[in-house]
Amino acid sequence: MTSTRPVVVVVGPPGSGKTTVAELLAARLGVAVRDTDQDVEAAEGESIQDIFVGRGEPVFRELEAAAVAEALSTHDGVLALGGGAVIDERTRALLADHTVAHLDVSLAGAAARVGMNTGRPLLMGNIRGQLKKLMDARRPLYQQVATFTVDTNELTPDQVADRILAEM
Ligand code: S3P
User: Fold this and answer.
1) Which positions in this protein are listed as binding Mg(2+) (predicted)?
2) How far is ligand 1, taken at its centre, from the CA of residue 2, in Å?
């Protein structure tokens, strides 16, 4: 039996460029791209923001962990995970078995990117302060699951995709 698995899984904090880089990678490789945030929204018929507000973060994390497990065993293209997916221990255990690209980014770089898109429930109010907290707490988790890390700070999304292709 052949198992289906993503060619590469992209992880990193909000504002690290996961979605853009995953799309570029998929186009270069001629494969499909999937994003677990979109999977959760499609499955629930609700935006992530509404799930956070109406049902709470723990419910979102359970839905996310299930979406990640499903995508890891069924998707054979590029898979981008939501920035907080690595919080879940079961998800980290599953990722040990995959090629995982970690997009590292400075606080300033991430803040500049998410500043353009403020729909993220965990970043309401003091965006920079919330981001710093998330990034400090999660950096070890991204590193734990990473097969390799790309420092995205001086690179365009195209150059990040090049680095990932070279590492795979
Ligand atoms: C989250 C990141 C978001 C989304 C949700 C929670 C987080 O994904 O899953 O808002 O905890 O960092 P992006 O990293 O794609 O913004």
Assistant:
1) 19
2) 32
